[in-house]
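Supplementary Methods, section 5.1.

A reviewer requested that the exact input to the structure prediction be made available. We therefore reproduce it here, unchanged from the version used in the analyses.
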Amino acid sequence: MPDINLATATAAEVLGALNNRDISSVELTQAYLSRVDALNGHLNAVITVDHEGALTAAKDADDARHRGEGGILNGVPLLHKDIFCTSGLRTTCASRMLENFTPPYDATVVSKLKAAGAVTLGKTNMDEFAMGSSNETSYFGPAHNPWDLSCVPGGSSGGSAAAVAAGLAPLSTGTDTGGSIRQPASLCGITGLKPTYGRVSRFGIIAFASSLDQAGPMTRTVEDAALMLNAMCGLDPHDSTSADMPVPNFHDALRGDLKGLRIGLPKQYFSELLDVRVANRIQDALKELEAEGATLVDVDLPHTQEGIATYYVIAPAEASANLARYDGVRFGHRCDDPTDLMDLYARSRSEGFGSEVQRRILVGTYALSAGFYDAYFKKAQQVRRIISNDFKQAFDQCDLIAGPSAPGVAFSVGAKSHDPIAMYMEDVYTLSVNLAGLPGLSLPAGLINGLPIGLQLIGRAFDEATLLKAGHRFQLRTDHHRLAPPFGEIS
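The structure derived from this sequence is encoded token-by-token as follows.
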């Protein structure tokens, strides 16, 4: 095997070695599988490992390369968040409800990445049904942050973030309903992109909140995210919310400088909610973007604080409707020996769902109930429009908006698990982006006491190209994305 450091290797570097015939996909895949086997006991980042399927796909990729064929990620190993349906491979959503569910089909994202030649190693841990900000609600136990195993990796895509940070795979998919790609990317020191709502198909993604869910890449670098996004996105007739928009070559769009780019700084993102140390690192990062030719301007997002309450009415309401299908009748967990239909429903759902999922179903059902719909759900939708208009007005003055991805660094396992409000505040800088349907990018921006923090860039709808170019220029000037966790402590 050539001199490839799996702990820090990017997908672009791996792809170069494969194309130069320095290594085969089978050899590379086996090396990553061995690394998963060696380290996952410490991290709990991967729920299901598909040794046989991965090696078969790797051989197919090698054969395609020998024929001069193959997609843009041919032979590159990746992991999927365990919310994507994978044909013949268990898909649990990290819940007892789906502990033994094996889908008969692939999600569109999975099939597109297969068509691009990517090799699926397995499925990553996550918060149950994507409901959480720490990966502690998983039925399979919490994932751990490779920078400090006593800390959480963030959530809900915590397993994906931890796996990429620890070098278990160069790429992973994630989903982002209120920050579930960007917040764990920040806490684990990787690059995470939430595309515009509609840019990537939701078909085959187990639904949480259908008007907010969006899949995206979780990678070491912006260059890798651009490659992966090109493979993932595009119009899908299976998804009615999939946007019929032209798809640029995101990798080619990385070229060029940032001269003339205006970056907006909302004062609401630099309030007392933000750790002062994080604020200082973000200011340092902004200076790097200024050095690339960008101009910083002040903008106003006056309803940022209202985003928390708005989100935690709309998302639970949609979850309540989406999760009604898990009733113990057709698929999912079924209680033993029900006495009647009501007993079947009640015990199957109470046994199958964890406490956070139950909490959100109850909140959502209440918000949708007769007599409260107008007071809560309708009002939340009205505030959602106001939040979206705030962004539109801000983008009259700037091309991108910048701020932190999370209010602090990774916190200890258990530190916030008994305080739902404290946990919900982890997403204070991310969830308004989902409410407005905009793209957001989290970039590694340094360490505080050995733990990563993230810079968030927010773009106009369907302008991921500008986001990625700015992020790429930032990474050309810095080495934060090259830092690796202290593996000596977990090897």
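The longest strand covers residues 440-448. These observations are discussed further in the main text.
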